[in-house]
Write a structure and sequence with these properties.
Blueprint (H helix, E strand, L loop, with lengths): L7 E4 L8 E8 L4 E4 L4 E6 L9 E6 L2 E2 L3 E5 L4 E3 L1 E5 L5 E5 L5 E6 L9
Antiparallel strand pairs: 1-2, 1-7, 2-3, 3-6, 4-5, 7-8, 9-10, 10-11
The structure holds zinc ion.
């Protein structure tokens, strides 16, 4: 999955299905990511020094990466992406639907020594 922090994604499963949001953080080892405004839960907190009022705290919980799709502004929906080599040699993501480039994944490599 080529999803990076700050990408806009669309949630395709669960209670927040259809919602879009910005990726706040990604945990690659567990394959989870936190999307702004999605999968919010109320965490009940006890009164403490940091939080003298106590009460409920709204918090986003991580989603499985497979439950989101990268959002394509051209298609106005979450889309499957592919990777391809751009003309300048860098690697980029693209929308499988409209083939719009969706940002770079890897910079252009220096021409490999062809001896
Ligand atoms: Zn598209």
């Amino acid at each position: 999955m080529h999803i990076k922090t700050d990408d806009t994604v669309q949630v395709i499963a669960g209670n927040d299905r259809g919602k879009q949001g910005r990726v706040l953080s990604i945990d690659r080892p567990s394959g989870k990511l936190v999307v702004e405004g999605c999968n919010r839960v109320y965490k009940h907190v006890r009164r403490s020094q940091k939080n003298p009022q106590g009460g409920r705290l709204s918090k986003e919980m991580p989603l499985q990466i497979s439950n989101v799709l990268l959002f394509c502004t051209q298609c106005a929906q979450g889309v499957r992406t592919g990777a391809r080599i751009a003309e300048d040699g860098s690697k980029e993501r693209f929308c499988r639907k409209c083939s719009t480039a969706l940002g770079q994944i890897a910079p252009a490599k220096d021409k490999q020594a062809s001896t």
